[in-house]
TrEMBL record:
Coiled coil: none annotated. Keywords: ATP-binding, Calcium, Calcium transport, Cell membrane, Ion transport, Magnesium, Membrane, Metal-binding, Nucleotide-binding, Phosphoprotein, Translocase, Transmembrane, Transmembrane helix, Transport. One of its GO terms (cellular component) is plasma membrane. The chain crosses the membrane at residues 48-71, 244-264, 270-296, 692-714, 720-741, 769-789, 795-812, 832-852, 868-887. It is a multi-pass membrane protein. This is P-type Ca(2+) transporter. NCBIfam families: ATPase_P-type. It is found in: Cell membrane. Gene3D superfamilies: Calcium-transporting ATPase, cytoplasmic domain N, Calcium-transporting ATPase, cytoplasmic transduction domain A, Calcium-transporting ATPase, transmembrane domain, HAD superfamily/HAD-like.
Length: 890
């Protein structure tokens, strides 16, 4: 079927759809169940079994398995079975952790998957692109990624970049008209928009003609490679650290074994103990727990409405030192209401709130009838004409469809009793030059009933003023005199000073009908009609969020296309601009090189009247000063800056697909305060990772040292292999995972950002690991020494006591790991997961010690009350010795 050859009506009929109302929701569901989801087939995933088996790939685990097998052959059945069971459980835990990390990453991918605006049951709604079906009517604008193959039915200056499909990076312009030809190349099928290609300009509508593998992309793509797993810098660093730790642990283990054999211990027993020690002491599970902690943090971020697209962003968030944020919609509500109007030398105020089209017009305190004010009526009509927004009543509420700035103009016109239909009867739109944030204007060429043509322009008043040679003044067209200009400028400034966003309207008659219209020739010599001032209230939570960021050593910078005076007023109301803080406008910014900007950028808090292109320069200057920069954006032109920033942030509701694809973080609610929450969570995740690294390594140091000390002192083994493996599985594993879910310490947002190159062991962590680990080993040995008085029965008793001491010392120490300061700093009941992990570890230890069937397996005997006095007294030492003010490391 050659879709490009068919005209729109034929396509509509062929795919059984209706251009006006689209498909019904139930029909779409039927088509999904019949033809499947709109997705490309993915490559094979790792199966559950091979993931489980991969847990045994670790060399030491393999050696342990072989050693266990040999001990089984030698008749040590119980040991062999018990050790195998523990290895199996360990693998199960590893499998569970990896699966969980994988699942949450998968869920994340789903959440940030693209959406498409589609007409269903006569209403435009957003659906995940994978739910598109053949026959759907789809709407797109510049910045959209096309979700399925479409036959275009409307194209307002659409240009699409099809390099993903054709390799050609120059955008192609698209049309609606059918194309003749037998073998038209994909690149020349100008009335088709292909799945996966990028709209760079204009807006349009199309009918879905192919989905999933039945698209041009599906046919060339074949099977999609499943995306490679993301590795964050911290994970990479931990992998390297892991290698060093393996060497250390193995070296020490070899030493323990060698010493043991020299002291006359049974060689085979020493070997088994050594391998068990190596398995326990090598933190092979660390990268998996880190992934779990990262992905759990990511889940918490989702609850706070921040979606992480790149896992590495979680770490970088904790280092952010500057947030550059858009103003409109991110710091403000993007709910615009016109409150002031200035035209023809007269000023009006407008009452009413939000998009409710009810309000009155006042002039000097007296209510007026708009029909009697010609200039006002003309301004409102033009504002309504050069406009695509619609206000509709839904469930007794007025909702906006379109751009809020334009919506405010529609509402103001409705308050005056005007509506668009009669205007469109009076004026036919001939041509349109859409708004872009570089020009900051939008124009339409219209033709009136007499066939006369006009250009009507609306845009930023200061720019429109430069383009106007005339003004409607006292209801007459007059040359733009210095006096009129001054009056208009005064009005722009006064509105800006009240934090109002301003927008002006101008027009001019066009002489000939057949002019070839260009933006430059149209948007000049205009007749200035008047200007609107609209409020866009700040989001209430933003002021506090900016303060919290300041306390956390993070500077907030406002970037806006609005007038400098408006931006300054809003920045001041948000306490963003400190005394001496500078406001820089786009003009000044464009005069500076990146290096020159670098010299002054620390003082600038507001960038006003900037174009998206300027954002890249700002990011570069900040980065050259050593800042870790977060940058927000929503449009196509924001993408380079979002990509260049250390943390690129895009808007979930108003952001384009391009901006989202470039970003590492998506704000579901477009809200600045969400960035602060994400940073807080980013810092917390990093601290939690440090907490369990500290816990695991200190425990491992303790385990190795107790064995080493014993061998140095020519003592029997203080712990048997199965006990070592048990401690590794239960006492180390569970609490470490619970630490990964800890809440942040109270001052997490009162500290300065972390340096991005800060090592894992900085801020005293290395000292803590070694000192606490040393003491854990020491007290375990002491208990062993105090309880061992020779003889086999005594040995089992002493080993049981040492085992209990090791477990208890670690379980007490885990509470110390929750704080950077001391164990007293935090409520021990503050983390329920940790309590659960600790209590269950204790109960399991009790079972191993007191439950008779388990005693021979774990080489234990029941302990008496006085044993516990000794055990608990000494087990607290590694934690409480450092808890006093003097000895505390902080
Ligand atoms: P930011 O979101 O970065 O804070 P912004 O998005 O408000 O800034 P722009 O949308 O680029 O910035 O708007 C800049 C100026 O362009 C506005 O102050 C307004 O005068 C004008 N403007 C905004 N929207 C339109 C529009 N739809 N038509 C005409 N002019 C507009």
């Amino acid at each position: 079927m050659k879709w490009y050859e068919s005209d729109v009506d034929a396509v509509e009929e062929l795919v059984h759809t209706d251009k006006q109302n689209g498909l019904s929701e139930s029909e779409a569901k039927k088509r999904i169940s019949k033809f499947g989801y709109n997705q490309l087939a993915e490559g094979k995933k790792v199966s559950a079994l091979s993931l489980f088996l991969s847990q045994f790939k670790d060399f030491m685990v393999f050696v342990l398995l072989v050693a266990t097998f040999i001990s089984g052959l030698l008749g040590e059945y119980i040991d062999a079975v018990a050790i195998s069971a523990i290895i199996f459980l360990n693998a199960l835990l590893g499998y569970y952790q990896e699966r969980r990390a994988e699942k949450s990453l998968e869920a994340l991918k789903q959440l940030s998957s693209p959406q498409t605006t589609v007409l269903r049951d006569g209403e435009w709604r957003k659906v995940p692109s994978q739910e598109l079906v053949v026959g759907d009517i789809v709407k797109f604008t510049s910045g959209s990624r096309i979700g399925a193959d479409l036959r275009l039915i409307r194209s307002d200056g659409v240009e699409i970049e099809e390099s993903a499909l054709t390799g050609e990076s120059v955008p192609v312009s698209k049309q609606v008209e059918r194309i003749e030809g037998d073998l038209v190349e994909l690149g020349d099928q100008a009335n088709i928009a292909f799945m996966g290609t990028l709209v760079t300009r204009g807006s349009g509508v199309g009918i879905v003609i192919g989905t999933g593998m039945n698209t041009a992309m599906g046919q060339i793509a074949g099977l999609l490679e499943s995306a490679p797993q993301q590795v964050t810098p911290l994970q990479r660093r931990l992998e390297q650290l892991g290698k060093i730790l393996i060497v250390c642990a193995l070296g020490l283990t070899v030493l323990v074994v060698a010493l043991g054999i020299m002291q006359g211990h049974d060689m085979y027993k020493m070997f088994l103990a050594g391998v068990s020690l190596a398995v326990a002491a090598i933190p092979e599970g660390l990268p998996a727990i880190v992934t779990v902690a990262l992905s759990l943090g990511v889940q918490r971020m989702i609850k706070r409405k921040a979606i992480v697209r790149r896992l590495s962003a979680v770490e970088t968030l904790g280092c952010a030192s500057v947030i550059c944020s858009d103003k409109t919609g991110t710091m403000t509500q993007n709910k615009m209401t016109v409150t002031t109007i200035y035209a023809s030398g007269k000023k009006w105020s407008v009452t009413g709130t939000g998009y409710q089209p009810e309000g009155c017009f006042f002039n000097g305190g007296t209510e007026i009838r708009v029909s009697q004010e010609k200039a006002l009526q003309q301004l409102l009509s033009f504002g309504l004409l050069v406009n695509h927004a619609n206000i509709a009543e839904k469930n007794a509420e007025y909702v906006l469809d379109g751009d809020p700035t334009e919506g405010a103009l529609v509402v103001a016109a409705m308050k005056a009793g005007l509506s668009r239909e009669p205007l469109l009867e009076q004026y036919t739109v001939v041509h349109e030059f859409p708004f872009d944030s570089k020009r900051k204007m939008m124009s339409m060429v219209v033709e009136d009933e007499n066939g006369d043509r006009y250009v009507v322009t609306k845009g930023a008043p200061d720019i429109l003023l430069q383009k106007s040679e005339w003004a409607l003044w006292h209801e007459r067209k007059q040359p733009m005199s210095a006096k009129i200009k001054k009056s208009l400028e005064g009005s722009i400034e006064s509105m800006g000073g009240q934090a109002l966003r301003t927008i002006a309207v101008g027009f001019k008659p066009l002489r000939s009908k057949h002019e070839s219209y260009t933006i430059n020739s149209l948007e000049k010599d205009l007749i200035f009609v008047g200007l609107f001032g609209m409020i866009d209230p700040p989001r209430p939570e933003v002021k506090n969020a900016i303060r919290e960021c300041r306390e956390a050593g993070i500077k907030t910078v406002m970037i806006t296309g609005d007038h400098a005076i408006t931006a300054t007023a809003i920045a001041s109301s948000l306490d963003l601009l400190p005394p001496g803080g500078r406001v820089m406008d786009g003009y000044e910014l464009s005069q500076l090189s990146v290096d020159e900007l670098e010299d002054v950028v620390e003082d600038v808090y507001v960038f006003a009247r900037v174009s998206p292109e300027h954002k890249l320069k700002i990011v570069q200057a900040l980065q050259q000063r050593g800042h870790i920069t977060a940058m927000t954006g929503d449009g196509v032109n924001d993408a380079p800056a979002i990509k260049a920033a250390d943390i690129g942030i895009s808007m979930g509701t108003t952001g384009t697909d391009v901006a989202k694809e470039a970003s590492a973080l998506v704000l579901m609610d477009d809200n600045f305060a969400t960035i602060k929450e994400a940073i807080k969570e980013g810092r917390n995740i990093y601290e939690n990772i440090r907490k369990f690294i500290r816990y695991l390594l200190a425990s491992n140091v303790g385990e190795i040292l107790v064995m080493l000390f014993a061998m140095l002192m020519a003592l029997p083994l203080p712990l048997v292999p199965i006990q070592i493996l048990w401690v590794n599985l239960v006492t180390d594993g569970l609490p470490a995972m619970a630490l990964g879910m800890d809440k942040p310490e109270g001052d997490v947002m009162k500290r300065n950002p972390r340096h991005p190159r800060e090592g894992v062991f900085s801020r005293g962590l290395g000292w803590k690991v070694l000192s606490r680990g040393f003491l854990i080993g020491l007290v375990t040995l002491l208990v062993f020494l105090f309880t061992y008085r020779g003889g086999q029965n005594e040995l089992i008793h002493a080993q049981t006591a040492a085992f209990a001491t090791l477990v208890m010392a670690q379980l007490i120490h885990v509470f110390d790991c929750r704080s950077d300061y001391s164990v007293y700093h935090r409520n021990p009941f503050g983390n329920v997961y940790l309590l659960f992990a600790v209590v269950s570890s204790i109960l399991l230890m009790m079972a191993v010690i007191y439950y008779p069937p388990l005693q021979p397996i774990f080489h234990t005997v029941s302990l008496a009350a006085h044993d516990w006095l000794l055990i608990l007294g000494l087990a607290g030492i590694p934690t409480f010795v450092f808890a006093g003010k003097l000895l505390s490391n902080k």
